[in-house]
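<backbone_tokenisation>
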Amino acid sequence: MAITVTDVNFKEVVLDANQPVLIDFWAPWCGPCRMIAPIIDELAEAYSGKAIIAKCDVDTSSEVPLKYGIRNIPTLLFFQKGEMIDKIVGSATKSAIAAKLDTLIK
């Protein structure tokens, strides 16, 4: 299961992480977000111990999406050592997301 990231715990979960981090910015009313939700949960299980997979609800946390210029959802941001390395805007396949994660895991 993906970790919930909020404006309050963002620094601790993402910026201070010792592993690569994938954050899914989503909202409950977003159809494409609901479509990729099972993929995000599968990746959280598959990458357990290798990467942190997180979700941020843009309706309940607004500071982090604003800081990173999230204008469309779903948006997936990839972080390593506290820095945003890559992103995917819109729906994506499990293999495309996994390929980006794999490049961050060493």
Q: What stands out?
A: Residues 1 and 45 are 6 Å apart (CA to CA).
